[in-house]
Design goal:
Mur_ligase_cen; single chain; nine-stranded mixed sheet; 15 helices; UDP-N-acetylmuramoyl-L-alanine:D-glutamate ligase; Protein-Tyrosine Phosphatase, Chain A
Length: 457
């Protein structure tokens, strides 16, 4: 009876929110339902005939979850997926409510759930997933998460909550995660990159991890692909990057998106994607590893990946006032550095707007901006402007990087409009924004009819 009350109440709240234009009902209905029935997630997850897949990582979980969910749909399964990116327990509960009818019947065979780093143990305990996918660990929201060691301890608790037959899919190129999951050898799938053509010349100065997670000695890198991800070994102990189960042998950036040659066993697959950037190469091989481990046929999985567009704010393109804008979410040094790397690699000489907020969901501490390699933007020789609550902070950081901002605008929507007016007709522009700034931009773009509501995409 309590569960039925929670479902009915949550669905009514979600309906009312959407009907009144107060939002997509991606969190509040779940929060209320969990107050009424604290075991709601466990109850509904039990109804999944093919179980649940939980995906966690500092960067890439929204995109990886979408890639995997769409691949599973292509195989004919009904998928419960928090596609809005609402990844705390209340958001996951709201996702299950949306897939449940008024009588409590769940329309879903399998769930694909991206989960917040700190919420991982609780969600694993509640939904008892058949698979846990771990993408990466980077410094993010220091005032909330603390240093990487804190998150690693939290994830160890999540691993302890797994069922004995659960599969772990992990990024072999992340030394923290490789060591964290070393005890799961018999039920662990690993993924990574191999292509030296996309390797960085050195470990970035802002790399979050340089020491062996096992013995504390310095790690030695043969190749670095992104942040502290790459081919590594410890100088003092036996720790080394494990051979990936699924590996991208070549990674090419083409005009239409990424082209990968991916090895699994004795087979090689030519993978195409609408997405761009080395970080999305990792997301693609993560989704492929999870798909193969779940038993998806390559003939279904590979074509499905090619059809998946960018998630909201993740290389999403919109046309506004005759200009084509590309939206990129930035939230930590590694993600920002990779966004800059993408801008430089695509050679699209479009003006740039960087919008920085410091609300709770962004992290109040914006000192991380000083670890971003903004100097790399100079090679583009394009106008760079700033906006958001911390417009002044990023403008100062740009000045220290030798880039004089062309405009410094207050707010988010006002910054967009004033910057947009400086772009030539039929021109292009890059918009790099932190989480709450991106949400505000997306709401405004939806209001103007040039993009759908982010929670409905």
């Amino acid at each position: 009876m309590t569960t039925r009350l929670a479902i009915v109440t949550g669905r009514i709240v979600a309906w009312a929110m959407r009907r009144s234009g107060l939002g997509g009902g991606t969190a509040l209905p779940g929060l209320i339902a969990l107050r009424l029935a604290p075991d709601l997630l466990t109850t509904l997850a039990r109804k999944l005939s093919s179980g649940a897949v939980v995906i966690a990582g500092t960067n890439g979980k929204t995109t990886t979850a979408r890639l995997l969910a769409e691949s599973l749909r292509a195989s004919g399964l009904h998928v419960v997926h928090n596609r809005s990116g609402s990844n705390l327990p209340r958001g996951i509960a709201a996702t299950f409510l949306e897939a449940t009818d008024w009588l409590g019947r769940l329309d879903g065979d399998i769930a694909v759930l991206e989960v917040d780093e700190f919420a991982l143990p609780a969600v694993v305990r509640a939904v008892k997933p058949r698979m846990l996918v771990l993408l990466n660990l980077f410094r993010d929201q220091l005032d909330r998460y603390g240093e990487l060691e804190t998150i690693a301890r939290t994830w160890r608790r999540a691993l302890d909550e797994l069922l004995p037959d659960a599969t772990v899919v992990v990024n072999a190129d992340d030394p923290i995660l490789a060591e964290l999951t070393a005890g799961f050898q018999e039920r662990r799938w690993t993924f990574g990159l191999e292509d030296p053509a996309v390797a960085l010349p050195t470990l970035p100065h802002a790399a979050d991890w340089r020491l062996c997670p096992r013995c504390g000695a310095s790690l030695e890198y043969e190749r670095v692909f992104l942040g502290h991800l790459g081919r590594y070994r410890c100088r003092a102990c036996a720790l080394a990057r494990p051979a990936p189960t699924v590996v991208a042998r070549t990674v090419r950036q083409e005009p239409a998106g990424l082209a990968l040659d991916v090895d699994w066993g004795n087979r090689t697959f030519a993978v195409r994607s609408q997405l761009s950037g080395v970080y999305n190469a990792y997301n693609l091989v993560a989704a492929m590893s999870a798909g193969f481990a779940l038993g998806l046929a390559p003939e279904t999985l590979v074509p499905a990946l090619a059809e998946v567009p960018a998630a909201f704010g993740r290389q999403e393109r919109v046309r506004l006032a005759g200009r084509e804008l590309t939206l990129l979410l930035i939230k930590n040094p590694t993600g920002f550095n990779e966004a800059i790397r993408l801008l430089v690699s695509t050679k699209r000489h479009c003006p740039v707007l960087i919008v920085i907020n410091d609300l709770d969901a962004d992290g109040r501490d914006v000192s991380w901006l000083w670890d971003v390699d903004l100097e790399a933007l100079r090679v583009l020789s394009v106008p760079v402007s700033t906006g958001g609550i911390r417009s002044g902070e990023i403008a100062l950081r740009l000045a220290y990087a030798g880039i004089e901002p062309c405009g410094r605008y207050p707010g988010v929507v006002e910054a967009l409009d004033r910057w947009l007016a400086t772009l030539p007709p039929d021109g292009c522009g890059w918009v790099l924004a932190t989480y709450t700034a991106m949400l505000e931009l997306r709401r405004e773009l939806a209001r103007r009819g040039v993009a759908g509501e982010f929670w409905a995409q």
